[in-house]
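Technical appendix A lists one of the benchmark inputs used to test multi-chain prediction within the project. The record comprises two sequence entries:
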Amino acid sequence: MSWNRKHLLDIESLTVEEILTVLDTARAFKAVGERAIKKVPALRGKTVVNLFVEPSTRTRTSFELSEQRLSADIINFNTEASSLKKGETLKDTARNLEALNVDFIVIRHSASGAPHFLSRVLHASVINAGDGAHEHPTQALLDAFTIREKKGRIEGLNVTILGDILYSRVARSDIWALTKLGAKVTLCGPTTLVPRVFEQMGCRVTHNVEDAIREADVINLLRIQHERQRKSMFPGLNEYTSLFGLTKARLALTKPDAMIMHPGPINRGVEIDSEIADSSRSVILEQVTNGLAVRMAVLFLVNGGKGPQEVAPQ
Amino acid sequence: MPESTLILNAAAMQRALTRIAHEIAERNEAGTEVVLVGIQRGGVPLARRLGTLLTQIYGSTIPTGSLDVSMHRDDLDQRAAPNVHPTVIPFDVTGKTVVLVDDVLFSGRTVRAALDALNDFGRPRRIQLAVLIDRGHRELPIKADFAGKNVPTARTESVRVRLAERGHPDEVLLEKPS
């Protein structure tokens, strides 16, 4: 068994064996979701706090359902209604939650490193559900799971990530996971959103979309994140679509078995043609199904984690 | 090197499984819908072997499945998460006589977890338990209906079942701690 971590904070620090352990475990949990009774008692009596200090619908829903299917008790903490609005610090909020004897904290936060900070000050297991533009580890794990399930392998595949890389925590986590697992990753998008510095992470960077997709086995489209851009990084959405959108004409240039992925929510007609999103080439909805299985696997594994990260709080 | 004693060799294991198959057939007369479910991992190849033997005895195919009990264990927060293996039960267990199969019966906690896990797949008519080795030291009110061999052991000893399906010659060893 190669998992002894108490937290899941990022992909960067995981070994290949740890990533594969999550993917293998997720396969068993996917089967649970296909049964008449979709619930197992693995986290019975445990309490999970979903601390979403930034809006999220699908990730939070996916975590909630995963937790319910593991029989955990759940507290949802919404940023709009929370005391963080009243000036309480993140540490105080978390400590108050911990005074309720919670076992797991799933955190989404706009500040990079917030989950790492919590893991140092709390007894509970911390799972990163997205921190700023840093990492979104469960998304990368479900992407890797989906690629492996559909293509039978990851090693040696050409994976192109197309879109807003600079502001994307999904891109960073995907790059870590896929390069560790032996994929050849190409990044593409406007020069302002795909700087050459990403070559240091072991990726190919190109600003020519035809060049990026022609040899790709997997094309992962990322949403343009208006909310994270402080100033305009390109002239307009129409121009983005004409230069980088996955249109039918561009799809015709790709390998016939190139698979289309998107972490959602999709902007139909912006980064992806509406018909392509609904076509058999797209695995967007399977990514949602697999996200549940991966999140169940992560909760199951960190529950047993007795690793070196277990540090007593101050 | 731990000191080890041979408990069953290949021929004795084959005899034990043949006897268990005949006992299952004797207990469950023809017309009973018998299905076999092996507990991951050791019970799975044994269930397949018993399935082959029972198919010959009954003259009709006896379905075989595999069950992983990791998600139903009672010690999940006291140890690293166990490896999870596939659960494949390609038939409806409701109304059937399910024979759970495992290699070694020890505390009984795995069987308890298996009873819980099986419950999620339907409501069997009855559940019976077949094991290759019963080594004692039960911690729960569970007993085997069919046992290949009863072996008195000390708690500190371990019973190792090696099977041809996993690339070893068939044998069962009792290992004393060194």
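Residues 26 and 36 of chain B are 15 Å apart (CA to CA). Chain B has one domain: 10-73+86-155. Comparable benchmark entries are summarised in Table A2.
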